[in-house]
Amino acid sequence: MNDKIKVVTDASFEANVVNSSQVVLVDFWAEWCGSCKALMSVLDEIADEYDGKVIITKINIDENDQTLLKYGIHGIPTMLLFSDGVVQATKMGALSKAELSTFIDANI
Length: 108
Description:
Layout: E1 5-7, H1 10-18, E2 23-29, H2 34-49, E3 54-60, H3 65-70, E4 78-83, E5 86-92, H4 97-107
Parallel strand pairs: 1-3, 2-3
Antiparallel strand pairs: 2-4, 4-5
């Protein structure tokens, strides 16, 4: 995993995502999820491309059920884009780099 991708937990979510002064993309994922694993290489590239503009984070749903429930996540991978502590946009499913870039660009 790219060292620019930050792993967050229920305990660190508010500090690292909600209270962030930057736009934050949160990837809700699980170890057993094939689509989540396929998305990882896309997120690695996006983390490099958007470095300084968007913080890329990942949260494991199997280990962090409070955040999962709070944001009503029902399927994975699901990505939430936060700005000023508020969810600005949601995208579900494995995306290509072009699709994810378009999603981010349309919402920042």
